[in-house]
Amino acid sequence: MAKKTGKRLDPREGTVKQCIDDAMAEFECLKGNMEDWKDNLDSNNMGHLPKYDEVCECIDELDSAMNAIEGVWNDSLPSEVYELPVLYNVDTRKRRKSRSDCFGESLSIFERALCAMRRWFEEKEKLPENEKAVIKDRIASVETVIAEFDTAMDYFSDVSFPGMY
Asked: pTM of this prediction?
């Protein structure tokens, strides 16, 4: 019997807030992993190796993206946006995931939450002007967050996890 390969994805549902918070926690964990690796290289006098530069670059890229998100994330959105539903998939294979796999899955969840915010924004932009005027501050705050999250996505696209060797 042939062994099955590929991902086993289970559909999940959460809110924008849950998805962004979970993705940020995973990004923070990955950054901590990379900082531990950097510290290990430092303590073994390996700071001169190309691998050290790759690890430092990965940390800087993660840090830049996370800073862009943290600058606008906490309490800057209307509560209705935090509670928007988000559908996403989680890889449920039993094997341990690589840093890159964890990052990709978290980034996908982050992107799904961003899409939910964009849909909300687009719906509100279609409202008649008199209705938009009533919620213009909420629309503006969501637009700001979307722009900063887009900046973070640019930073995330530069993240590259170095291999062990």
From this structure: 0.86
